[in-house]
Amino acid sequence: MTDQEIQDSSETQLIRRMVGSLIPASRNHGIPAADDPLILKRVLQAVSRFQAPLTAELRALAGAHGSPEALLALDAADFGEVVARAVEERIGALGILLTAVLQAYYTDPRVLRSLGKSPDPPFPHGNDIAQGDWTLLDPVRSRPPLYRDG
Amino acid sequence: MEQVDVLIVGAGASAAAFAWAMAETRMHIVCLEQGDWVDHKTYPIASPAWEARPDFSNDPNVRQGPADYPIDARRSEIAPANFNAVGGATILYAGHFPRFHPSDFRVRTLDGVADDWPISYATLEPFYELNERMMGVSGLAGDPAYPPKQPVMPPLPLGKSGAALARGYNALGWHWWPSDCAINTVEYDGRARCINLGACGLGCAQGAKASVDLTYWPAAIRAGVELRPGRRVREITVDDHGMASGAIYHEPGGAVRRIAAHIVVVACNGIGTPRLLLNSVSPRFPDGLANSSGLVGKNLMFHPYGVVDAVLDHALDGNRGPYKGIASHQFYETDLSRGFVRGFSFEMQRGYGPAASALVALQAGALPWGAQHHDAYRELIDRTVSIVAVCEDLPEPCNEVTLDPEQTDADGIPGARIHYTLSENSRRMMDFALDRGRELAAAAGAVRLLRQMGPARAAGFHLMGTARMGASLANSVVNAWGRSHDVKNLFIIDGSLFVTSAAVNPTATIQALALYIASEIKARLSNSTLFD
Ligand SMILES: Cc1cc2nc3c(=O)[nH]c(=O)nc-3n(C[C@H](O)[C@H](O)[C@H](O)COP(=O)(O)OP(=O)(O)OC[C@H]3O[C@@H](n4cnc5c(N)ncnc54)[C@H](O)[C@@H]3O)c2cc1C
After folding, report:
1. Of A39, B104, B459, B474, most Cβ neighbours within 10 A?
2. B 90-149 residues inside an 8 A Cβ radius of A
3. Which residues contact B222 (CB under 8 A, 6 or more apart)?
4. Ligand 1 test: best mutation among B7, B93, B497, most atoms within 8 Å of CB?
């Protein structure tokens, strides 16, 4: 299959519509939906290793509505309901897709920035964390031993 | 055919410690490892999108790399995790490094269950100490849950997550203490200190976490041990006298070679070791090597993990800082009034990165889709700390590793299949632990709970018991110093040896055992009693 064919396949169209409905854009937070081309590309890459079970699942979902075209023709509200129900009822099989969506979405630089996080990898800069209040340990220090001898 | 003195199979935690300890004998020691060296600069944490790297998944069935072998876990309540490379699973481990308790070696005598170990805490104590110096262990002396011990460097920071749980423990009057961790809090032995990258489980690019490719292996190699990565051992061979004669292995690219050895040492972890022994059949050992007891592969123990994710109303550490920090042994020792025998520890999982936070919430059923998704997610991120119960599993012959009749690795060697069900005792312990976890979450000020689950399916980090040690062939595969009862020049040195699992992470004990076995071998070499 060529890239173009993959892009155009009804499963891909279904995935695009599904992920956009699962995580829509937010104007409030200034972030794209999960069907943003850059994010979608990474979703498709991630699920490509599990093509067979996912395709079977998507076909079953579309089949329940007559055809992929019929499912895709639903309006946003109806489509959203179908997806929400599918996610609830078929979490096992669709788990691959949901995991891929969340991983692609929450590693996207735009989304990370909107969360106040750096899109740069943590290494080599690292992070600071508080040492914390070690006097909290005082009551434990004064406890008698709680191990048994062997 | 090449002839060596000692052949070690596997280059993980146990093999590295053993190889280093044996190097002073000046024997020709060769280690064959199916995986490669991992370049720390290529770790996910050094690249963008570090949370989306299936090649560093701890599930071999997700990774499916050339070094991996398939493990069919469909008949198991817990899915095993591992990593196949120089360093073994220490590449991905969290570095939590507690010792066992003295009572863990005497479970039959003290609690009337399972079997006592053929060695005691006192036997291992000097090797625990040596190992902690070699690995570099941070912690704090004075823990009332243990006999006196002295960590080699100061503890990991409490941070906001640790402080929140510590307050909860104090409110309940429960024990807690900074965890012993094989993570540098100061520069140690040429390795840098931890800079709180927050992804211990994806490999530490800073090198502050003591994976054995950084600790023991460089020292062992300097001392003359030969480590050959990319070589997968297919079978251990035997001679006409029933002694191990060496191994058949695959070179990178698949070519099959033989190597002869006077001593063969298996260090492939709790699933890889029985897999290799069961794959090593011969007319003399038709049921697998060293298996006349029938116990190779039996008594597989995990630590069933119970998880309670507590969401607080203020920001915690999130993914800043090492995974671990503090632990509690309040419920470690047996108290039959709790409704089960033996016990569990609590460890802290400090927090999660942005993608992992979303996945945790998804698993908890707490992440709505559609318009509400964003606000719901933002209420959880960086406010979650996990209370993780590590339950002691007792040995059950029905929990086992067998060969997979269907799947093979890339060299055509049968993979492993596991059957595992939680025992009634473990289930009662788990229920109790989850109740206590909820109590702790409330005391720590949780405004909400996310996942409350046990056993966590994906938490098969610790693989133990499948070639256990003991006094006789009737109840064990190897003797008190790791030598096979059946094959007198074959040794096992990994967590397969464990008689019971205790209620803490195993690697400190696995490595102390490997050092102890090396010391026993050296003593017997010097008085020529090794093969008696
Ligand atoms: C995600 C994760 C987190 C963990 N966290 C902790 C923790 O915080 N604390 C703790 O104590 N433990 C932890 N563990 C467990 C710890 O990593 C193991 O207990 C430890 O590494 C076991 O040491 P080992 O020598 O038995 O096996 P390993 O370190 O796994 O090494 C075995 C090696 O043998 C090789 N091998 C297997 N079969 C063959 C063959 N046929 N031919 C050649 N080579 C072979 C493998 O490739 C592997 O490299 C964790 C494990 C994981 C996966």
Report:
1. B104
2. 101-106, 110, 120-122, 140, 142, 144-147
3. none
4. B93
List the Cα angle B353/B359/B362 in 5-degree steps: 140
Query: Do B403 and B419 form a contact (C-beta atoms < 8 A)?
Result: no
* Residues of B whose CB is below 8 A from A146: 144-145, 175, 329-330, 332-333
Phi and psi angles of residue B238, each rounded to the nearest 5 degrees, phi first: -130, 155
Rounded-to-10 torsion of CA B15, B17, B18, B19: 80
Beta bridge partners, B32, equal B9, B228
Sign of CA dihedral B347, B315, A42, A74: positive
CA of B100 to the centre of ligand 1 (A): 18
**Structural domain includes residue B364:** no
Q: Which two tokens stand for residue B410?
A: 């890339």
Q: Is B367 inside a domain boundary?
A: no
CATH number of B182's domain: 3.50.50.60
Task: Give the tokens for residue B286.
Answer: 């038709």
pLDDT tens profile A83-122: 888 888 876 668 889 999 999 999 999 999 999 999 999 9
Residue A22 lies in a domain: yes
- Encoded tokens for B424: 């009634």
Q: Which residues, 6 or more positions from B381, have their beta carbon under 8 angstroms from its beta carbon?
A: A115, B318, B354, B357
Enumerate the β-bridge partners of residue B402.
Answer: B417
Domain hosting B107: range is 2-351+383-526
Which residues does a 6 A CB cutoff place in the pocket of ligand 1? B 9-15, 32-35, 58, 67, 81-85, 88-90, 92-96, 201, 232-233, 267-269, 272, 276, 461-462, 494-495, 505-507, 510
Amino acid at the residue B452: Q
pLDDT of the residue at A8: 67
Residue B371 lies in a domain: no
A7 belongs to a structural domain: yes
Tokens of B33: 């490892």
Residue B456, domain member (yes or no): yes
A-contacting residues in B 387-416 (Cβ below 8 Å): none
Amino acid at B246: G
Asked if residue A125 belongs to a domain, the reply is no
Q: By residue range, what is the domain housing residue A69?
A: 3-118
Q: Render pLDDT for B423-469 as a digit per residue (tens, 0 to 9).
A: 999 999 999 999 999 999 999 999 999 999 999 999 999 999 999 99
Distance from CA of B213 to the nearest CA of A (A): 19
Residue of B75, B71, B96 lying closest to B13 (CA atoms): B96
Q: Tell me the C-alpha distance between B423 and B420, whole Å.
A: 9
Average pLDDT, chain B: 97
Task: Specify the pTM.
Answer: 0.96
Report how far residue B175's alpha carbon sits from residue B13's, in angstroms, rounded to the nearest whole number: 30
Structural domain count, chain A? 1
Query: How many domains in chain B?
Result: 1
Measured distance CA(B350)–CA(B164) in Å, rounded: 10
- Euclidean distance between CA atoms B5 and A144, whole angstroms: 50
How many residues in chain A?
Answer: 150
- Collapsing DSSP to helix, strand or coil, B389 comes out as strand
- Residue identified by tokens 């690795």 is B409
Asked whether residue A123 is assigned to any structural domain, the reply reads no
